[in-house]
Design goal:
The protein has 299 residues and is of the alpha+beta class. The chain is built from nine helices and 14 strands.
């Protein structure tokens, strides 16, 4: 069955692509065979809490969010949405308004059940959030993610076209859940310019692609890469374009070798965090596992 396509509109004289955000979100949900709904009822919000707990597997007596918090957030007009296949909740997302006065939305937590992975549900949920935010006259969404998780880096920077803004060491403090483990919770804060060309192109399924291998042939050097034993390998990289690698599966590595997982945390903090502290700019992520960083100052 042919799925609906989001319309593409070329704007004459401007280097950007515009789409109807609602149609793009509807097309993405249809392609994933799900329905995305705003949630306000206590029973639905309780289901969201259970879903998040099943994904993150927090320690005894803890949970990522509570029903009371979600109820308050929804009642205050913030973004609380669930992804359904029939009556089954497969994913959910919470976002709340940031300063100044509804100018931005901070997307705090989003997750998809194991049964829903690999179907584009996360992408559909973000496009739904984008369309909702634009209807509220919000042009910016921010969120954080663990920069060591390769698939999340590709999703956020390439698939969605978000821009890294800050490296945040140990942002949440100890979390002690099945995903984060017991180490430091460094995060990369990203900014998603909703009406911008990258987000508009992303909504059409046109990711921002970079080829690290081609960049290396043109002189880009790797400041951090994966050593033969799977650990971090640092090297001098003084050129205008720097590549920063991450391991294939940091979550598995944390379970099988916590020491090496912590070594990666320290190395990425020093290399990527250090570059960003020097005002170098992360311009994208290659799916092969490389952050591409430019030292050139933007005009």
């Amino acid at each position: 069955k042919r799925q609906p396509q989001a319309p593409r509109i070329a704007v004459r004289g401007e280097a950007r692509i515009e789409t109807d955000p609602d149609l793009a979100a509807t097309a993405a949900a249809a392609a994933s065979h799900v329905e995305i709904r705003h949630l306000t009822e206590v029973s639905d919000l309780t289901d969201v809490c259970r879903l998040f707990a099943s994904i993150w597997q927090p320690g005894a007596g803890a949970q990522p969010v509570t029903t009371e918090l979600l109820r308050a957030m929804a009642a205050a007009g913030n973004y609380v949405a669930g992804v359904y296949e029939g009556d089954e909740l497969l994913g959910a997302c919470l976002g709340f308004f940031g300063s100044p006065a509804k100018a931005s939305l901070h997307s705090h937590i989003a997750g998809v059940a194991p049964r829903g992975l690999g179907r584009g549900i996360g992408f559909a949920l973000k496009l739904h959030q984008r369309a909702w935010a634009l209807r509220q006259h919000v042009s910016l969404i921010t969120w954080t993610f663990d920069p060591l998780v390769r698939r999340n880096a590709h999703f956020n920077l390439a698939k969605l076209g978000a821009d890294p803004a800050r490296y945040l060491p140990d942002f949440y403090g100890p979390m002690r859940d099945d995903i984060n483990g017991t180490g430091d919770t460094d995060r990369l804060m990203v900014r998603w310019n909703l009406p911008g060309p990258a987000a508009s192109a992303a909504s059409l399924g046109e990711p921002a692609r970079l080829d690290a291998a081609a960049l290396r042939e043109r002189g880009a050097a790797a400041a951090l890469s994966v050593a033969p034993d799977g650990g971090p390998l640092t090297a001098a990289a003084d050129g205008p374009v720097v590549l920063v690698g991450v391991p294939p599966d940091i979550e598995a590595l944390r379970r099988t070798d916590p020491g090496q997982g912590q070594a990666w945390r320290v190395a990425l903090r020093e290399v990527l965090g250090g570059l960003m502290a020097e005002e170098a700019r992360v311009i994208g992520f290659d799916r092969a596992g490389w952050y591409v960083v430019s030292r050139e100052k933007s005009s």
